[in-house]
Design brief:
Largest sheet: 2 strands, antiparallel
Number of strands: 2
Number of helices: 5
Radius of gyration: 18 Å
Order of helices and strands: HHHHEEH
Shape: extended
Distance between the termini: 45 Å
Helix content: 40-55%
Number of domains: 1
Strand content: under 5%
Strand order of the largest sheet: 1-2
Length: about 100
């Protein structure tokens, strides 16, 4: 059974509890409109379902190991998944410097 992100629950919470529409009207938060946030959530959900979640079992089985030289060896697939994470733009937020 794969991971299925609870997008409806998250969207409900953002709309009805956090009042995302009001937040999007605040100065500096115009980019956080419901349509944009929904798109980001859907893409993040897809990425984590397809790339990250499949690593859960191997991560549990192999674990990360501290090497004698102080580096950490991660389970198979973790390095490639992180590269995809960065390549997809999830590793940083693109905002103007102030």
């Amino acid at each position: 059974m794969g991971y299925k992100p609870p997008l409806q629950d998250i969207e409900f919470t953002l709309a009805n509890i956090a009042d995302l529409e009001s937040i999007a009207k605040l100065n500096g938060f115009q980019h956080a409109d419901p349509a944009t946030v929904t798109g980001v959530l859907e893409e993040a959900g897809r990425f984590f379902s397809e790339v990250i979640a499949p690593l859960n079992q191997i991560g549990d089985q192999q674990g990360s190991k501290l090497q004698p030289d102080g580096t950490v060896k991660t389970p198979e697939g973790f390095k490639a998944a992180y590269a995809k994470f960065v390549e997809a733009g999830w590793g940083g937020v693109h905002i103007p410097e102030q």
